[in-house]
Amino acid sequence: MKVGVGADHGGFEMKQQLAGLLEKEGHEVVDFGNEVYDTDDDYPDFAFPLARAVASGKIERGILACGSGVGASVAANKVPGARAALCHDDFSARQGVEDDNMDILSASGVAPRVLRLPGTAPRTSLEPGSAVRIGIAGGWLKSCSLKPAKRPAHTIASKHRF
User: Fold this and answer.
1) Which residues are catalytic, by number?
2) Closest residue by Cα to residue 37 from 109, 105, 106, 87
3) Looking at domain 2-159, does it have CATH number 3.40.1400.10?
4) Which residues does 153 contact at the CB level (< 8 Å), separation at least 6?
């Protein structure tokens, strides 16, 4: 699968480790940055290009990380056609794909016990990057949507007035 990864300084270490693991698992990884650890960078600089690539079909899925994971998810969801969510467990990650056509997973680079690959123990350390270390992609990348192709934003808006 062609998977994009992107992170600001809050998720940089985790992104680097995750990219390496994804490549070892046979995925084609497209790195949307940052390429170096920079405390002055900001998640929108990486979330927007990754979300645009997912929405346009240049990549199949994306994984974003920032300090909390919230900002990257919010930024990615501003791109029409992108569906991002912050997930803290395997069920939510799989359900997001299978039921909601989620194509971007957002994660915290520092929160404890986030997602893990099957067969690996959850991390509980708050050391930056170790909490989600590489495990974020496990069941999520293996999940397939059980719904028809993505619903266009205008279809959702026409059924649900906000």
Assistant:
1) 66
2) 109
3) yes
4) 80, 81
